[in-house]
Amino acid sequence: MGKILIIGAGGVGTVVAHKAAQNPAVFTEIMLASRTKAKCDAIAAAVGGNRIKTAQVDADNVGELVELMNSFKPDLVINVALPYQDLTIMDACLECGVNYLDTANYEPRDEAKFEYKWQWAYRDKFEKAGLTAILGCGFDPGVTSVFTAYAAKHHFDEMHYLDIVDCNAGDHGKAFATNFNPEINIREVTQKGRYWENGKWVTTEPHEIHKPLTYPCIGPKESYVIYHEELESLVKNYPTLKRARFWMTFGQEYLTHLRVIQNIGMARIDPILYNGVEIVPIQFLKAVLPDPGELGENYTGETSIGCRIRGIKDGKERTYYIYNNCSHQAAYRETGAQGVSYTTGVPATVGAMMFMQGLWKKQGVFNVEEFDPDPFLSELAKQGLPWTELFDVDLEV
Ligand code: NDP
Predict the structure, then answer these.
(1) Ligand 1 proximity of 78 Cβ (cutoff 6 Å)
(2) pLDDT of the residue at 293
(3) Which domains does the chain have, with CATH numbers?
(4) What is the DSSP string of 285-345?
(5) What φ, ψ does residue 310 adopt, rounded to 5°?
(6) Ligand 1 atom index nearest CA of 36
(7) Using one digit for the tens of pLDDT, what is the confidence trace for 82-111?
(8) How many angstroms does the Cα of residue 163 sit away from the middle of ligand 1?
(9) Which end of the chain, C or N, has fewer beta carbons within 10 A?
(10) Which of 12, 77, 185, 280 for a ligand 1 pocket mutation test, highest count of atoms within 8 Å of Cβ?
(11) Are 32 and 105 spatial neighbours (Cβ–Cβ below 8 Å)?
């Protein structure tokens, strides 16, 4: 059906490469490009069968991206590098007439702040070029937004309260490690909390609001309200929401490490001079922390991520909970990557399938909830992430 260029050979890129290779009828040719070509070659070798071509590219450099896209001529780029590269990759896509999909919104390097405004500003350009850009197609953002769209389409006349709940009950055996890129992860979880209530954003201190929530097949876990990027587009696209929040579980050990990292200045994102060389403390920290891509082998337990929604259907109040549980071990057996990379890479691949099959194809820049959720969720279950719905249950939130 078409050619894809995957950019980024980390944990998520590993899963996208495996999943895309498993679907040759949709993805006829696959290229994996990243900063370090050796990582692409290792992933291509693990997939086998000469299914994946590889290339070196610096995705901060539009010229290099344009050259690569013009030589391979992909139909779609799947951007699973870092959020810093979103805009350069979108620029190159526009220059080469290539469609675009990512899993995380743009962040400037010198400001720990994620917002869609930079990418939404590309709407007209993509529309005029007749190209599609699909934003935020991982699990959260991604599946959580599609779950919300599915709830709105099938189960509610009006949604009033949305609580996205993200639990990682896995154990990787390390004192401290992050489940995806440490720099991006630490920037995200050390920010102030933020949620939507009665038409405006409410800001909290980091991890100020917390309570135990019960996750299916896992049990109660302390969960913390943090700001997460899908809230920004969901409250715009579902204006009946009176409140929208995002909860994530953290263990005490993880939070203690995080506090120490912050207190001693290792989470700083501004450059400092060390022995005459400029270094950014959080980037140095990334270099000494465990590589999230290497956690898989000894990772046990599972993740559970879903949406808890309260609203009105046929004049009556209804509660609804839709979720997926994913086993780290099963993810590792299939792709060599742990559950957090798996739950991001599989939806990115399914989003790409939707585009290739013409089911998610419109001109402009869109968040995933702006497409039909039905074919996506049906394919998601077939590709390894089945989901469950519960009605009229206690949502605890
Ligand atoms: P990793 O750090 O494991 O991988 C990132 C990859 O991008 C690395 O291979 C890295 O290269 C490459 N890269 C970085 N900078 C450049 C550059 N300038 N040019 C080319 N390649 C580059 O991250 P993850 O795989 O864990 O995460 C990938 C993305 O997925 C991130 O944007 C993350 O925010 C997002 N994500 C989204 C989630 C969701 O649910 N929506 C959940 C988890 C992650 P090198 O190997 O040389 O360092």
Answers:
(1) no
(2) 82
(3) 2-135 (3.40.50.720), 143-337+382-391 (3.30.360.10)
(4) HHHHSPPGGG-GGG-BSEEEEEEEEEEEETTEEEEEEEEEEEEHHHHHHHHSS-HHHHHHH
(5) -125, 135
(6) 47
(7) 999 999 999 999 999 999 999 999 999 888
(8) 27
(9) N
(10) 12
(11) no
Q: Which of 274, 285, 265 is nearest to 184 (CA)?
A: 285
**What residue has token string 């450059």?**
271
Distance CA 192, CA 177 (A): 21
Distance 103 CA to ligand 1 centre (A): 10
Element (H, E) at 110: none
210 token code pair: 């917390």
In eight-state DSSP terms, residue 342 is H
If you count them, how many residues does the chain have? 397
At 344 the three-state DSSP class reads: helix
Taking the CB of residue 84, how many other CB atoms lie within 10 A of it? 16
Query: Which of 15, 19, 35, 369 to probe ligand 1 with, by most ligand atoms within 8 A of CB?
Result: 35
Please state the pTM of the whole predicted model: 0.96
Which contiguous run of DSSP H or E holds residue 120?
helix 117-120
Taking CA atoms only, the protein residue closest to ligand 1 atom 4 is 10
Query: Does 13 sit in the ligand 1 pocket, CB within 6 Å?
Result: yes
Give the list of residues 6+ apart from residue 367 with CB closer than 8 angstroms, or none.
116, 135, 136, 141, 145, 230, 233, 237
Low-confidence ranges of the chain (pLDDT < 70): none
pLDDT, residue 183, reads: 86
Q: State the burial class of residue 351 (Cβ atoms within 10 Å of its Cβ: 0-12, 13-18, 19+).
A: buried
DSSP 3-38: EEEEE--SHHHHHHHHHHHT-TTTEEEEEEEES-HH
> What does the pLDDT read at residue 294?
86
Return the pLDDT at 110: 84
